[in-house]
Every structure is written in C-alpha cells, then in structure tokens.
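Can't paste images in this forum, so I'm doing it all in text. The chain is below; anyone willing to post the predicted structure tokens underneath?
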Amino acid sequence: MSAGVFPGTLEEQGNGNLWEGDFHPTMIALARLLEPVSIAIKDTHPGRAYATKEFEWAGQRTWGVSTESSDRRTVYLHILRPPSARILTLGPTEDGTELDIATARLVKGGASVPMRKNDSGYEIALPHGAEWDAVNTVIAVRRR
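Text version of the structure:
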C-alpha cells in the first residue's frame, strides 16, 4: 500500500487535516484490528516454513501465509482463508524444519491449539469454543 500525508500546507486544508480523505481514521481502524495479533506482524520476517512464492499474493494461497519472529524460532500461521471445518491441514514445512506441536497456541487469547503431525504434514484444530476469526486467525508455534 502506498500512502502518505497530503502534500500541502495547513492553510490549504480548511479543516487543518493533512491526511487525504478518510486515510487517517481508516489507518486507526486498521491498527485496532491488527493490535491483538501485532506480535505476529511487527518486527517479523516473511515465513520460510510456509513461504509466499514470487509473484504470489495472499488470495492465491489455500489457507494463508506465515511470518516468523526476528530470531526465526517462532512461526506465525496467519489463517486468512479458513477451511469450512474446524481442522486445517498443512503440508510439511517448506524449509524442512520441524514444528513443536506442543507449543501451538492462538496469538489472540493464548489458547492452546491442538496440533498433530502426520505423514503428509500437520493438522491444526481450533480449540473448543474458538471460531475462525473473520480477519485473521494467527497461530504461533515454535520450531524444534
């Protein structure tokens, strides 16, 4: 997203607002939406465990994207396109690392997430009482 302040002066803007249109309140609303999962967005790196391919965008992914903590020890799975069921199936990590399934938890709220490794990758189940978030369900899991 390309965004910035209106290239003008306070005198040119009758309301004293240098932001274009509703940009400022829109960004405040976006920040409020992202705050509960900000640890998985701020000071992170693009995911290596489940990498976005060159020229690929989130809408092309079957489930979402991953980011990683700055020390690369925690993988954040951003479920942007949740399955219709309560279980999400992921393939093995693309970088060959193993995920510590015992550490899987929801970033928003911290509930433990049932995760299982099998021959084709991983299965992640929503904890009892949880629902897929309409914006972004984020699951944190440590690398072994």
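The helical segments are 23-34. The radius of gyration is 19 Å.
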